[in-house]
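2024-03-11 09:14:02 INFO worker-7 job=invfold-0412 stage=load source=structure_tokens
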């Protein structure tokens, strides 16, 4: 069975605890604190691997965890950082929060590598807590906790062209004719239970990727049969080819079939009907001549009324196929070049800290002091030295309502905001 969905639990590495120790040397009777810092926990990273095309590796294993950071040691020894966990997925994989269904990352287009969970920051050793009045602190900072969430992995096949049609109209035969794909072909309803991909090599080298989307039935958008499992693969395609049986060998009405499939596409996602369509009237090898009442009716219904071209073809003999492929390529040339990539809707770190408390106070020098577990933990998971990390932290402050509360307390442009060991100048 083609594995295109999986639900797994991922966990980042806990930060190593800071260490409590003191110098103990023969000629240093009152040695100071020398406890080292804990190591950073490992990140959970998803990586696109061009060599795999299913999520089969995640069907039989449920839990994946990055390494925790090691505890700090004596003599200011820093604990070892935990190893990152790298999970390889095929291109087109969408990572969703299992609880809300919101998109965390879409491994498509330029997004080949994505850090989904950041490891916890290592705790500070007791050497950092020495003061003039407390020269021998007997405590150290614990490492930050790991983040654990359940995610839904969902593979959406990336192809330029999607083949749709009811069972037994010849989609698999057509795909094997025009590409190097070798799908299983048999005269059984729902014989194709997985999307088959193939590359069409055109004479001038400008080929495209085509996918045989498994047979649809009425009610597919409501989840009847394997409807939802198949419909989502059409979302990334740019052009849709309707394949119908022009010879009537199945006793079906091709016009009704096209309308039925378009209703399912519209019910699942109305944007799908905005994609260019073309109709392949298949099996003309089984009729007398190149035209019959079915093909004439298709032309009258779709070419004349909607401008959708109809091409009589034979997937078995290859008749008419070349003309169809050149028209498809013309349609593709008018489509946007960039891949369909879904925007992030959910950040695990933001969700993890949303219920933590925080306080806003004014310091003697007029600075706004923002403190609390929400702030301290978030700082530990954010690289403030990078522009991306700083923008991520700004988004966190905005979404958590912290910036709004600062404004309500009268903060002005140029005022100082102090958050533990970080200071910022506020500008709206």
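2024-03-11 09:14:09 INFO worker-7 stage=emit residues=428
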């Amino acid at each position: 069975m083609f594995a295109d969905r999986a639900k797994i639990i991922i966990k980042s590495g806990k930060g190593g605890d800071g260490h409590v120790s003191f110098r103990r040397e023969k000629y240093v009777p009152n040695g100071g604190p020398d406890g080292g810092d804990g190591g950073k926990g490992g990140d959970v990273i998803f990586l696109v691997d061009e060599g795999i095309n299913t999520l089969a590796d995640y069907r039989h294993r449920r839990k994946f965890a990055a390494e925790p950071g090691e505890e700090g040691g004596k003599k200011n020894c820093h604990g070892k950082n935990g190893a990152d966990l790298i999970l390889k997925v095929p291109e087109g994989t969408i990572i969703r929060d299992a609880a809300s269904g919101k998109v965390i990352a879409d491994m498509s287009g330029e997004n080949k590598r994505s850090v989904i969970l950041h490891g916890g920051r290592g705790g500070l050793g007791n050497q950092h807590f020495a003061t003039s009045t407390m020269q021998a602190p007997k405590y150290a900072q614990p490492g930050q906790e790991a983040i654990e969430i359940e995610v839904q992995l969902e593979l959406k096949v990336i192809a330029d062209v999607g083949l749709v049609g009811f069972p037994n109209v010849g989609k698999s035969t057509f795909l094997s004719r025009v590409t190097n794909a070798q799908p299983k072909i048999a005269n059984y309803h729902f014989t194709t239970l997985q999307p088959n991909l193939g590359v069409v090599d055109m004479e001038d080298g400008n080929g495209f990727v085509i996918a045989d989307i498994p047979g649809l039935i009425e009610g597919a958008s409501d989840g009847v049969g394997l409807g939802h499992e198949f419909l989502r693969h059409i979302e990334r395609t740019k052009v849709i080819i309707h394949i119908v049986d022009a010879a009537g060998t199945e006793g079906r009405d091709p016009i009704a079939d096209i309308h039925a499939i378009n209703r399912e596409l519209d019910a699942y996602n109305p944007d799908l009907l905005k994609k260019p369509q073309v109709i392949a009237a298949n099996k003309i090898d089984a009729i007398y001549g190149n035209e019959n009442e079915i093909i004439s009716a298709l032309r009258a219904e779709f070419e004349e009324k909607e401008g959708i071209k109809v091409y009589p073809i034979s997937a078995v003999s290859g008749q008419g196929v070349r003309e169809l492929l050149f028209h498809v390529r013309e349609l593709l040339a008018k489509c946007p070049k960039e891949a369909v990539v879904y925007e992030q809707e959910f950040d695990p770190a933001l969700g993890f800290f949303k219920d933590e408390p925080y306080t806003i106070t004014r310091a003697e020098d007029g600075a706004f002091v923002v403190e609390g577990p929400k702030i301290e933990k978030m700082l530990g998971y954010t690289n403030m030295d990078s522009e991306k990390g700083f923008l991520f932290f700004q988004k966190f402050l905005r979404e958590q309502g912290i910036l709004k509360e600062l404004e309500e307390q009268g903060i002005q442009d140029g005022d100082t905001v102090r958050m533990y060991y970080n200071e910022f100048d506020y500008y709206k």
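2024-03-11 09:14:09 INFO worker-7 stage=report msg="Confidence is low (pLDDT under 50) at residues 183-192."
2024-03-11 09:14:10 INFO worker-7 job finished
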